[in-house]
Amino acid sequence: MTRQRMLASDGRDSGAALVMVLVWGVGLLLLALVMSTAVTRLVRPSDEAEQSFRAWTAAEAGIDDFRARVAASRNGDMSASLSPTTNAALAGWVPIPGVDPAEAGDTRFRYTLDTSRMSSAGRIIITSTGYAGGQYRTVRAELAKVTMFDYAYASAYETVAPRYPDYYTGSGLFDRTQPDRAEAELYCGNRYWYRTGPIPPPTSVTPNHRDSSACIGGIVANWAIGENDRFIGRVHTNDLFVLNTTSAKVPAFTTSTVFPSGAPASSCPPGQAGVSVGCPEGHRWIAGTVVNGSSYVIDETQGPVDSGFQPPYEDPIEIRAEGRSTLLAKAKEAGCVFTGPTRLRFHSDGTLVVTSPDSRSANPTTPGINCGGTSLQAADARVARPVALTTADLGPSFNGIIYVQDVPTGSDPNAWATTPPSCQDKKPSTTALDPFPFVVTASSVTGSNGTTYTDNNGFSATQTLYGFPAEGTNASGAQRETFSTDLDTASVAQSCRTGTAYVEGVYSGRWTVVTEGDIAITSDIVDALVPTNLRPSRATTPSPTRNPPAGWGTPPASSTSVMGLVPDRMLYVYGCSKEKGCGSWDRTRMTTNLVLNVATVVVDGCLTVMDSTLTTDYGRLTILGSLGQKYRCPVAKPTGLSGFGFYVEYDSRFSRGQPPPYMAELSQEPWRVQSVQEVRTPAELAAAPPD
Questions:
Q1: Are residues 466 and 612 both part of a single domain?
Q2: Backbone angles phi, psi at 401, to 5 degrees
Q3: pLDDT at residue 162 above 70?
Q4: Would you state the pLDDT for residue 13?
Q5: Coil, helix or strand at residue 259
Q6: Which of 480, 513, 545, 554 has fewest C-beta within 10 Å?
Q7: Average pLDDT of 619-624?
Q8: Which are the contacts of 10, defined by CB distance < 8 A and separation ≥ 6?
Q9: Whose CA is closest to 283, among 257, 313, 254?
């Protein structure tokens, strides 16, 4: 009985155990399901994150792809990079170049471009979308072009320009003291200080460029960087800076004096046998140390007191000379093209007063822009017809380009079948041809807005004709104004046809003045928003000062007005002396404490003053903007208080994408990424996966 009860009891316990096992089994299955679901949810985002990262990488690869295409283009021609026909990424999805397809999988990118500000401001917006595993990422980048106006000062060669007037006047037999101009073109003009090797043909002499006192000569004291110079902002040369160590020893060039923003950069590379003497690390200065009476050498022994104040290496910056033809095309399209010697004076209300007697057809092809047309022609050799071009005359389509060309020949609408007015005899009573002044100014002109503009306040009453070059100037002899003569021909009959602009004024708006000849600065070129107490008054002669008040000549950050100066030849401060027949021009009143709010690219010359041996104190020549030039020429006296002190300070507005119109066309340097950010667009979210 007991045994039967026990057997019965064991059967009941076994059933309960089975139920318990089944319950636990179901629980474990549920737990496994929950855990697998959780793991799956964790794994899936991880995979999505990986694909999203791959898509981001592909989007950035699109930006790099476009930059590489531009860098590989010839002579700055970007047309192939901008066309969907030759750039597949503009037409559809493309794989990442150079990546193994097995590794890349379905990763692709495509991009679009906004080039509306490419020419005018040197900016391109690229929107690049990357795809990987069903994930899209889009980045938008602003590309900016490296240009000379990224710097307070930039130069290609730190030698005196071969066309500098009355400088390279040697015998033509390569006198080391002074070559002639042809030798200067070969020897001093396009060779860096650190280059070695002989002069190219046709000359037969073989000096090294390091033996280069001929390229400095006796004006080193007026030409090399001295203690009266100041450079505020980034400074660069493709060459080497020559320091005036006669009075300002190398240790004086510290962060608190000439270069308070830090050491300037140089493109002097390490030496290469047979090619370049080069620069050892930390030795990218040239000191005025004379070796064997003839050489100026890279300073190996002297160094600034601050051992860290040494020029670092930077890649060269090149001027794209072909860019000037682009500016001419832009001027013909929606700017103004003037012909021959031309007087330009800017006014604070946006008006430009123009005297250009050789201009016969100045209006562009775009309707609604009035550049004066045929009304600019001189009635005869003595009578000027200035035109006041108001903002209403120029119209909303005007692009800001003022181009001054040489007098053309042939069938050009600005050609002259007879002698152009600028070259006609201004004094018929004399026997010798006297075309001076080339540009005869008038006392006043009234614009279409009813305002009368007076333009001769820099002249005195000592001459019959007011104008440039001054009456009394001769093509040769004691009263010769060298800057008015075409140095290629040394012929006044040719120089009177040259597209030289005489520029001054208080401007409002965005302008770029381009010339095929020189630009002569006849007084201040200043932003209208600079307070009057922070710029010189020209009503009376300003007292010269080397230390003006804080903010002197500085435009407010809110100003959108800019001025670009692009002469093909020389950019110089007009200051013809009485000895040269210029008694009618009040140089002291018009240029003392000169202020220039400009960005310059001097294509084949340099900034200088008309008389670099000035003995009168003219205070400080101040550039608030950017000075870019091919060569370096005398500007300031390196010591003492005679001539000009030289001060260059960078206008930071240029770094924010506000350079003068179309000046970016003068640079052939690479495009860099200025800014980048991720964006999400409806088109991106709705896009179908690439094939």
A1: yes
A2: -90, 125
A3: yes
A4: 58
A5: coil
A6: 545
A7: 96
A8: none
A9: 313
Cβ atoms within 10 Å of 304's Cβ, excluding its own: 21
* DSSP 8-state symbol, 313: B
339 and 474 share one domain: yes
* Both structure tokens of 280: 């050892």
Same domain, 491 and 619: yes
Per the document, the length of the chain is: 691
Q: How far is CA 254 from CA 158, 227, 259, 264, 410, in A?
A: 20, 11, 7, 11, 56
**339 domain residue, yes or no:** yes
pTM of the model: 0.81
Q: Residue 603 domain-assigned? A: yes
Q: Compute how many other C-beta atoms are within 10 angstroms of the C-beta atom of residue 142.
A: 18
**Beta pairing, strands 123-132 & 135-145:** antiparallel
Report the alpha-carbon distance of residue 128 to residue 109 in Å, rounded: 7
d(CA 151, CA 626): 6
Beta bridge pairs of residue 480 = 474
Residue 393 has pLDDT above 60, yes or no: yes
Same domain (yes/no): 498, 596: yes
Give the model's pLDDT for residue 306.
Answer: 44
- CA dist 378 → 35, 357, 463 (Å): 94, 5, 20
In the chain, what is the greatest distance between 2 CA atoms, to the nearest angstrom?
162
Under DSSP, the state recorded for 491 is B
407 DSSP assignment: P
Phi and psi (nearest 5°) for 92?
A: 180, -170
Token code pair at residue 583: 């008694």
Q: How confident is the model at residue 301 (pLDDT cuts 50, 70, 90)?
A: very low
Question: Do 562 and 466 share a structural domain?
Answer: yes
635 token code pair: 């500007």
Domain with 100, as residue range(s), is 20-146+675-685
Q: 491: which strand partners?
A: 486
Dist. CA 93–CA 691, nearest whole Å:
8
Range in 185-194, 220-229, 265-274, 528-537 the model is least confident about? 220-229
Please tell me whether the peptide bond between 84 and the residue prior to it is cis, using omega within 30 degrees of 0.
no
**Count of structural domains within the chain:** 2
- Read off the pLDDT band of 295 (50, 70, 90): very low
Residue 461 domain flag: yes
To the nearest whole percent, how much of the chain has pLDDT over 90? 39
Report the distance separating Cα 127 and Cα 19, nearest Å. 65
Check: CB of residue 135 under 8 Å from CB of residue 51: yes
DSSP-derived letter for residue 528 is T
Please indicate, yes or no, whether residues 453 and 578 belong to a single structural domain of this protein. Answer: yes
pLDDT per residue as tens digits for the range 75-129: 456 778 899 999 999 999 999 988 887 777 889 999 999 988 776 667 789 999 9
Extract the tokens encoding 687.
């896009």
Q: Tell whether the model's pLDDT for residue 339 goes beyond 90.
A: yes
**pLDDT tens digits for 188-213?**
778 787 776 555 444 455 555 544 55
Report residue 673: phi and psi, to 5°: -80, 115
**Residue 273: DSSP 8-state:** T
DSSP-derived 3-state class of residue 98: coil
In a domain, 312, yes or no: no
Rounded Cα distance, 516 and 595, in Å: 24
β partners of residue 146: none
pLDDT digit string, tens, across residues 627-667: 999 998 888 876 778 889 999 999 988 877 677 888 888 87
